[in-house]
Amino acid sequence: MLRHLFFGVIWFSSFVCLYAQKDFSSCSGHVSISPNVSYDLKFPGKFSKDKSGVTHYCELPVVSNNFIWLQYKPQHKGTVQFYSHTSADSIILFVFETQSMEDCAAILSKKARLVSCEQRTMGDSVFQKYEVKDNFNYFFAINAAKGKTNGIKVRLDYVPLTEDGKVLKDSLMFNAAYHRDQPIYGIHFRDEITGFPVVARLYLYASSMIDGTYRGSEILMNNQKKLKALIKIDAEGYYSKDFTDYLITPVTHHDTIKLTPISRGTITKLDEIYFAGGLAVIMEESMPRLKRLKDFLLLNPSISIEVQGHVNEDGKHSFGAQRLSKKRARKIVEYLIECGISSERLDYVGFGNSHPMFPNPENDEQREANRRVEIKIK
Hints:
With 378 residues, the chain is mainly beta. It has 3 domains: 16-160, Jelly Rolls (Sandwich), CATH 2.60.120; 169-259, Immunoglobulin-like, CATH 2.60.40; 270-377, CATH 3.30.1330.60. The protein has 4 helices and 23 strands. A 5-stranded mixed β-sheet has the order 1-20-23-21-22. Strands 2-4-11-6-9 form a 5-stranded mixed β-sheet, with no helix packed on it. A 5-stranded mixed β-sheet has the order 3-5-10-7-8. Mean pLDDT is 86; it is low at 1-21.
């Protein structure tokens, strides 16, 4: 029933590695982070005096502007825990709350609310939980001793809550089953890890009676025929899924489709991308898959990717193979830019034949597997 998954996970790293890390030492250069995602950062090693204004809020000793600044804006009230692990002897963490339309200027002018000010040491494993409000800005300023360039792994765990303090499960019913005496087909979307409902967009093509685009976590419709459907599923914060020849039977039942949360650092294969033999020319039959990649990036504007090209070539890794794979990866990036994706979110690299899935391919299928395009979520 399943023909292909838009992104099939090939390799996973727990932490985001920001290879081209910007200067996060000032609040104005902060990184906007996503919840429940791990980041691998590095202190910039600043020596100059602190001018951030944080010393107005707390008596802990801040002697330099060797900071990492992060920002998060929750959509619902809830709780967050800020996890950190570093080889530095100690760090100081400041957590600030500002109004929705305020930013770093509120911290500098002493108008921000200090949520927490705490010193953490290398061996700490228990961390505070903070309450957050919807549509407020939260800034996390991490300070290390001057000149230190230690790495630090951080993660912000966020749990949305209802007004009465219960865990908020984002659900939406779309009921198009207008005839109770006819078979009802239901399709439900769930988070693969938590099992919670996920509001997703469903594109369904099978019969004029049920064709259409729907949005919800629970979708119901009448169906009186045995169908083989094409369905596409998109949800912000999740990998897209495509199914062809998806069987829908004319009896009352429902299917549950589990969606995988986006994991930064993941490398996934981009299926059905074809190039002219020996050339960096994208074949027309690749367009549906490239359009799905474009849609994925439009739906997830905080995601950046690296397009990785691979070719199948006998013998040792050669400069020619590396150059061809890089040109092919660049062609995909150029297509995405033409579709309106910012070039700042896109990077590309060519690995030639240095990372084959099958070092000694025995058939065309294995050679085709070596000749591939992969996407790294950054």
